Task: structure prediction
Amino acid sequence: MTPWGTVEENPDTMEHYSLDKIVESGELRALTIAGERTFYTWDKAYLGTHYLLGEMLAKELGVELKIEECSDTLEMVHRLSSNDADVILMPIRKDWEESDNLLFCGPEEDGMQWAVMKYNRPLANAIEEWYKPEMLTEADVRVTEILNSSVHCHVYEPVLDKRNGVLSSYDNLFKTYAHTANADWRLLAAICYQESCFDPKARSWAGACGLMQVMPETAASVGLPVEQIFDPESNVEAAAKVINQLNIWFRDVTNASERLNFMLASYNGGQGHVRDAMALTEKNGGNPYIWEEVSEYILLLSQPQYYRDAVVKCGYMRGTETYGYVSKVRERYKEYMGIAEGDDYYGQDDLGGNAGVSTRPQRRAHAKNKYQI
Result:
């Protein structure tokens, strides 16, 4: 007996699939397909209506949510039946041809619902007991609130002392770690203002922290203990290491000014999504090393015919923020270059230049108009 219902007496399946085993393991293994309402990365974290509901369910069960992306419904069902996961965390059709072995439960939309295997009735019972119809609307509202929210921070002036070329109280840190980043110190300052408005205590909804809005897992990957993540110097140093990594990862973009665009887009939206946009650009006859062309697909990755393309690995992307992020940081960097003296690692004369000429100005203009950029 479990708190959520009676386990069906099937010794061959109880050991591997019971709700007790899920709780004991400490994680709920869920399958989904990338999409606007299902699951995607945004602002350095995961988002999506059904993802948020899955997080709520995992919290109710006292476990962590582990998400695995699939390419289609068939893959999800096959992986579920192979015990690669516990639940399909997105609505699928109840009349689907392979649904005989499934139990449908939880959020329902247009005749579609989450699913578990038939022998996992305890989990289905737990989901049914937990879920209330109003939760779907609440999750939709929460997603909208997150998308419309900004970093919680104190907004400082973008330039502390223009006459004397002082950008912020942290210029010494940007100068100290410019070589770590292999970047102009004023670029670090421009990124910092866009991320936190120079507030060392800034925190985003997703958990990004400090001056450069470093995520705890990112901090760990570059050797920064989480208890030091709000320390200004440690935070800037960690971000500088990440920026240097991005510089290395995009060394195939040989034009330094163009590479900067790809680095900034990755700092904001993730390297995987940027690579997806580059792959789409090349597939459709464009130059994958020119940001003006690649950014078109950064925007188009919010449409199913693009994020479900075979060359796309990371799925749905809400690209409007990343598109705007690159432009805003570049504009502020250019402004800072005119205010404060310093070496420019990327070449001042090439700052606004392109490595080539875009081949699709009409389509690019259409994308910008469509997304009101």
Notes: Residues 1-16, 347-359, 365-373 have pLDDT under 50 and may be disordered. DSSP finds 17 helices and seven strands in the chain. The CA atoms of residues 266 and 274 lie 6 Å apart.
